[in-house]
Design brief:
- The structure is a single chain.
- By secondary structure, the chain is an alpha+beta fold.
- The protein has a single domain, classed as 4-Layer Sandwich (Glutamine Phosphoribosylpyrophosphate, subunit 1, domain 1), CATH 3.60.20.10.
- 35% of the residues lie in helices and 26% in strands.
- It has a five-stranded antiparallel beta sheet with strand order 10-1-2-11-12, covered by helices on one side.
- Strand 1 (3-9) and strand 2 (12-17) form a beta hairpin.
- Helix 1 packs across helix 2.
- It is globular, with a radius of gyration of 21 Å.
- The termini are far apart.
Amino acid sequence: MTYCIAVSVDEGLVLTSDSRTNAGIDNVSTYGKMHVFATREERSLVLLSAGNLATTQAVVERLRRDKRENAPVNLNTVQYLSEAADYLGQVSLEKQKRHAEDEGQSGFNPTATFIIAGQVGDEPPGAYLVYPEGNSITTSRQTPYLQIGESKYGKPILDRFITMSTPLDEAGLCSLISMDSTIRSNASVGPPVELLVYRRDSYSFDEYYCFDADDDYLLLLKRRWHEELRKAFIALPHYDRAFAKPLRGGL
């Protein structure tokens, strides 16, 4: 399984991904889900992937090859991030169809989901979620983040704390907590955890971090988050003393 997050706020972007891939309980591997592309100076683009590993690897290789060989449409020629999302959707559909035909198995699922994020020219930085069908959605002021993969466990923390005005450093911290909550609840999501911070108009991906399972900072963050949650839980007003009213006649 996979869990990837793209947070798009006023100051820029925060991208987070796990690295666990499994095809069964006894076949667990580690593959990076974050793919940074070297592009022209006035743009910076990164891809997050989830789904069938063969499809995602084929799509990433096609994007790199198109750029390297100066194909008519590639990540260096698109004028808008939305155009990059459309191009990605077309490539993904092509690879899914080919893998489905090659496998010829009724139970084989070649689908993949992607997030493409970054900044192109003077356009504000942003992120698009590209579905297996090739269509896409983007972030908004009401929902300034996107998720792919195992999203349900990490969503509540994002809903509570992420807004368009959230500082980038806080957004990065929130994304790591969201990832930790998912790892704790789903064994198919796991480290190394990759974190990439992109500051608006920098056209640079210099702020990249990779946390292994035994990373000192990641362990400290997990412990402190657990401790503070425990303190907050204990401090909550108790229902039977503060607010409860006795039932007339019992249950």
